[in-house]
Amino acid sequence: MGRACGIGAGAVGGASLTRGCNSAILKKIAVDASRRSSCPSGGGMPPILSAAIRGCYPMTFPLVLLMTLSFLVSVDVRILAPILPSISASLSSSPGSIGLAMTTYSFAYGLGQLVYGPLSDRLSRIAVVRTAGVAFALFTVLSALSVTTWQFIGVRLLAGSFAGAVIPLTLVYIGDTFEYERRQVVLGRLSALTSAAMAFSAAIGGAVAHFVSWRWMLVGYGLLAMVPVGLMWRLGAEKKEKPAASAESYGMFLRDRRALFVYAGVLLEGFLMWGAVTYLGSFGERRYGLDQFTVGLLLAFFGVGTVTGGLLMGRIRRFLSENLLAGLGGLFMGSSFLVLIPGGRPILFACGMFTLGLGFVGLHTTLQLRGTEISETARGKAFSLFTFSLFSGVSLGSAAFGRLVDGGHYGAMFTIAGIGLIAIGLATAFAPQCRTGRWGWDEARMRDFCPLE
User: Fold this and answer.
1) Which one of 137, 276, 398, 399 is most buried, by most CB atoms within 10 A?
2) Tell me: the pLDDT tens digits for 68-103?
3) Cα–Cα distance between 183 and 186 in angstroms, integer?
4) DSSP-derived 3-state class of residue 18
C-alpha cells in the first residue's frame, strides 16, 4: 500500500530535505503509517477525477474537494466561448459585447490573487476557498438571471473575482501538504485535471446550451459547484500556527532574486505561450481553410497532451530531474510553434498541439513547484504574485501578438514564441535554486547567490 501512495520504505525515517537558502538544518521527513492507508479508491467519482488522484501521494479528503472544485472552475473559465451567440441573441446584444464578460472575468480572476494569497496566510486555505466558493456559485446562478448585457458582464466579473481563489489556493495547499520531492507529481495530476476541464468545457457547454438553454446551464452549474463547497463547510477548522512571516511584504519577494527568476519565468511563459495560443484558431482557419468546429478539435489535442503528461508525471520524474524536465518542456513547447511556420498538413498542427501540451506540463509544473517554495511561512502571499504574473503575461501577450496577427505575420509570432519558450526552459533548468541536486548549483554557488537567512 505504501508503494501505491508513492511512499517507499526508505522514505520512512530515512528521508531528509533541505529547506531555505544557505541553511545547514536538515529536516527529517517522518511519514505516518496511517497516511499510507488513507488513499481514496476513487469509487463513485468522475473518471477523470479518479484518474487524476490515483496514487494519491497520499490524498486527503480536503484535497479531493479542492481538486473537484478546481475542475469545476476550470470548466467555467471556458464554458461561455461556444454559447456567446446564444447569450447575445437572448440579451439583444452582439457577441463582441458579450465577449467583454470573458475579459472582465479574467481580469478579476487575476487581480483577486493579491487579496486571497495574504488572506489565506492569515486564516487558512480551506476557509478562504469555501467562502469564495459560495460566492462563486451564487454569482454563477445570478448570471443566468441577467436581463441586460451590462448586468451579465457585471455579475460575471464578480463570479471571476471569487473563482480566482480556488485553483491558486489549491496549489498553495499542495505546497503546504506535500514535501518538495513528491510535490511535482501532485501538481501534475492537478494540471491534468484542470487541462481536461478546459479542453472539454467548450463541448460540454455547447451541448448543454443547445439541448436545454444557456440560462439553465449556468443555474445547474452553480448548484453543482455547491456540492464540494458544502462538503468543505463540514470540515473542521484547520489548525494554523500564528503566521511568523506577516511582516513579509510583496517588496521583499520582489527583491529576492530566486523569486524574481520564478516570477519572470511564468510571466514570459504566459506572454509567449498563451499569447500565441489565443490566435491559433484564426491561424487554423486562415492557413488550412478549416471551419471552427474542426479547428476546435485540433486545439483539443493540447488538452490531450496536458492530461497525458500530468497523469504520467510520477513515472517521468523517476527518470528526469526537475531541471531537465523544465528544459525539455521548454524545448517541446518552442518546437511546437516553430513547426507551424513552414506550413504542412493539419496533422502537423494536431501533433504540434499535443507536444505543446506535454511540454507545458513539464515547464509549468516546475515553475509552480518553485513558486510554492518561495516562502514557507507566507506561501499564499508569495504564490499570489506567481499567479498575478501569469495572468499579466497572458494579457500582455494577447495584446502584443494581436498586432502581428492583424498584419498577417503569423510566422513572426511563432518564431518569437518558439525561440522564447526554448530560452525560458533552458533558463529555468539552470536558474539558481537554494537546494542541491543532480542538475542544481553546488553549495558554494548557492552561498554567493542566495540571501542569508
Assistant:
1) 276
2) 999 988 888 777 766 777 788 888 877 667 777 877
3) 5
4) strand
Q: Which helix (H) or strand (E) holds 27?
A: strand 26-28
Task: Judge contact between 278 and 302, C-beta under 8 A.
Answer: no
Identity of residue 93: S
How many C-beta neighbours within 10 Å does residue 355 have?
19
CA distance 447 to 121: 29
CA distances from 376 to 21, 121, 212 (A): 12, 10, 47
- Cell readout for 27 is 529536516
Residue 70 corresponds to which amino acid?
Answer: S
pLDDT in tens, 315-354: 888 888 889 999 999 999 999 999 998 877 888 888 999 9
Sign for the pseudo-dihedral over CA of 153, 158, 162, 164: positive
Query: What is the distance between the alpha carbons of residues 190 and 64, in angstroms, rounded to a whole number?
Result: 10
Q: How far apart are CA 368 and CA 266, in angstroms?
A: 9
Structural domains of the chain, ranges and CATH numbers in brackets: 59-240 (1.20.1250.20), 249-453 (1.20.1250.20)
Angle at 164 between CA 413 and CA 329, to 5 degrees: 40
Q: From the centroid of its chain, how far is CA 423?
A: 21
Distance CA 165, CA 171 (A): 10
* Of the candidates 211, 268, 277, 216, the residue with the CA atom closest to the CA atom of residue 427: 268
Per the structure block, which three cell numbers stand in for 86? 446564444
Contact assessment for residue 130 and residue 232, using Cβ atoms and an 8 Å cutoff: yes
- For residue 447, give Cα distances in angstroms to 21, 23, 125, 451: 8, 9, 33, 8
Residue whose C-alpha cell reads 511582516 in the numeric block: 247
Nearest alpha carbon to residue 283 among 360, 341, 206, 336:
341
Q: In a 10 Å sphere around its CB, with 0-12 CB exposed, 13-18 middle and 19+ buried, how is residue 448 labelled? A: exposed
Cα(371)–Cα(375) distance, integer angstroms: 8
- Alpha-carbon distance of 187 to 195, in angstroms, equals 12
Residue 270 clears pLDDT 70, i.e. is over it? yes
